[in-house]
Design brief:
The chain has 19 helices and eleven strands. By secondary structure, the protein is α+β, with helices and mostly antiparallel strands. The strands form four sheets. It has a five-stranded mixed sheet.
């Protein structure tokens, strides 16, 4: 099993999609790294002169709406999601499209004309995963120099074909760099997590912290604070902007106007009792409007579901009685633990299991995090996650025009509301409940496997084909 760290579940990157934007950018950057390594170890031999990229499956069906082509261009230029400046994206893309070449550091100029060399293959997906892409480099004579197949498996995670084939549940846990580590609490399921908590007397947050400290040491709290700050910054940017989102649907940003009305209601002492739900919604919508605009967001656990966890965390800080800094840290640690379990035992990819794997997983993470921050027991935390996930089962991923806008922006708002309700229900119980989280995760995976591909990020069914005729 790959140990999934909090910094892997909560990646800082750019919108609009973790699987269709961030993943392909990472894959392209990794391919360029391969080329650099090959040239450095074999000086004087053939050198790459041209690159081609073929997108398969969901990446081909909805890649244009998710800016997959732009992401590939940026990755080939050497940029990665956590370092690229969103304000520089458009001129960089325009330059490559006009010149038909890229100049990665450490390599000769490579020919790459996106109009010819970036192919959206509309055929069946590759066998490994619904999100596949094949990158090839050719030498000056036109002979194949290097080829590699990558899979963007959700949440910005990328695996080569070889890595996907060799992924297995070995006894030793692996950290992000692929080296085995001895973690004090190596739970692989929610059942194991609860049992380790009972035996040790530790909370889920403390067990997750102990595991993370093996990798990050004293830097852990700084990294958690960086995640929290990036989430909060995204909310603030989303609340400050107006205008129409890109993509052609003419969807207007609404978060700022809603926030202004909520503040005015408070000033006039006319706030409705359900206003906390409105704040939850506007926090989530602010994030997902930023995501749809290609801004900087945090995968939570994906970009399409990036608004749920930040919204519930902000709700905890600003609306919950007794909120404190340690509660914020526990919230994120527990949310990451639940997200890691879901990713390991099922999927967080909308192209693989539908939106139940994205917003459903995010709601489970947020519910568990809030429950922990409010003092819930381990059993109550597990119950909160299960309630939130259970009531997203069967949710499709069928965004209009392949854009992460309709219904994705509002869906995050409702996912945040469900997460708070799930945490509250769990806190009013004793942690004993009928459906274990592990069984619910398994049901989500089985439901996703049985779901028609029309409803898994292909834009050939559901909302995607039921648009107003105008």
């Amino acid at each position: 099993m790959m140990f999934i760290s909090i910094v892997d579940i909560f990646k800082i990157g750019v919108g609009p999609s973790s699987s269709h934007t961030m993943g392909p950018m990472v894959a392209a950057a990794r391919f360029v790294d391969d080329l650099r390594g090959m040239v450095a170890t074999a000086p004087g031999s053939a050198r790459p002169g041209r690159v081609t990229v073929t997108l398969h499956g969901s990446l081909a069906f909805t890649g244009r709406g998710h800016a997959t082509d732009r992401a590939v261009i940026l990755g080939l230029c050497g940029f990665r999601p956590d370092t690229v400046d969103p304000d520089l994206v458009e001129p960089l893309e325009a330059e490559v499209r006009s010149t038909g070449r890229i100049d990665p550091e450490g390599l000769d100029t490579l020919r790459f004309d996106p109009a010819r060399d970036l192919v959206f293959d509309g055929g069946p997906p590759l066998e490994g995963h619904a999100n596949g892409l094949v990158l090839r480099a050719f030498d000056i004579a036109g002979d194949l120099f290097h080829s590699r197949t990558y899979y963007s498996v959700g949440g910005g995670f990328v695996l080569t074909e070889e890595e996907l084939q060799h992924r297995s549940d070995d006894q030793a846990l692996l950290c992000a760099d692929g080296h085995s580590q001895d973690f004090p609490y190596p739970f692989r399921t929610a059942g194991e997590m609860l049992e380790m908590g009972r035996r040790s007397g530790e909370t889920i947050a403390r067990m997750k912290r102990a595991n993370e400290s093996i990798i990050h040491g004293e830097a852990l709290d700084r990294k958690i604070e960086r995640i929290r700050a990036a989430m909060d910054d995204c909310i603030e940017r989303g609340l400050s902007k107006d205008g129409v989102l890109p993509g052609g649907l003419a969807v207007r940003r609404r978060a700022r106007a809603i926030r202004d009305r909520l503040v005015a209601e408070i000033d006039r002492n006319r706030a409705q009792p359900h206003q906390p739900n409105d704040w939850l919604s506007v926090y989530a919508m602010a994030v997902n409007e930023e995501n749809a605009a290609g801004g900087r967001v945090v995968t939570s656990p994906t970009n399409g579901a990036a608004g749920v966890v930040p919204a519930v965390l902000r709700y905890y800080r600003e609306h919950c009685i007794g909120a404190h800094a340690n509660g914020v840290t526990d919230f994120l640690l527990v949310a990451a633990a639940i997200g890691g379990l879901i990713k390991h035992n099922a999927s967080i990819s909308g192209a693989e299991v539908g939106c139940q794997g994205e917003v459903g997983s995010a709601a489970a993470m947020a519910a568990a995090g809030l429950c922990a921050a409010l003092g819930g027991s381990n059993e109550q935390v597990e119950n909160a996650a299960e309630i939130a996930l259970e009531h997203h089962l069967g949710m499709t991923c069928d965004p209009a025009a392949g854009l992460v806008q309709v219904p994705c922006i509002e869906r995050n708002a409702l996912g945040a509301i469900k997460a708070v309700s799930a945490a509250s229900l769990a806190l009013h119980g004793d942690g004993q409940h009928f459906m274990p989280l592990d069984n619910c995760v398994r049901a989500m995976l089985e439901t996703g496997r049985d779901m028609s591909s029309k409803y898994k990020e292909t834009s050939i069914g559901g909302i995607a084909v039921n648009l107003p005729e105008c």
